[in-house]
Design goal:
single chain; about 120 residues; 4 helices; 6 strands; about 30% strand
């Protein structure tokens, strides 16, 4: 049975910098299409930096590269991705009248699909 993780999408300074250059630049696409996980979780699941992983929930599924967070930066069980088209594939459409879907604390599953 797949292991459940908590996904926290958010903004990064690199995302903001590369956004100024355009959403279609390689740097912006790299920033918004890379999953960050704790080194402990990656080792336990047999995932190395650059491996492709599938992350999914009841809303959708995405395949993207994964890289390890800096030591002590992220606790086990938590995943991070910059806001963008990839993270939107996992968000429910309901906005509760705010115009922004719930995007924090989403339960997701994770598995390695290919080596990088």
């Amino acid at each position: 049975m797949p292991e459940t993780f908590i996904l926290i999408p958010g903004r990064t300074s690199r995302q903001g910098t590369t956004l100024n250059e355009g959403k279609y630049t390689d740097d912006y696409k790299d920033e918004t299409n890379t999953l960050i996980a704790s080194g402990d979780d990656m080792r336990r699941l047999g995932i190395a930096d650059g491996d492709l992983v599938r992350m999914w929930n009841e809303v959708g599924s995405v395949v993207l590269p994964c890289k390890s967070a800096s030591a002590g930066e992220m606790p086990s069980g938590l995943l991070f991705i910059s806001y963008g088209p990839t993270s939107c594939h996992l968000m429910k459409a309901e906005t509760h009248g705010s115009g922004m879907p719930d995007s924090k604390g989403m339960d997701v599953f994770l598995e390695r699909v290919a080596t990088g």
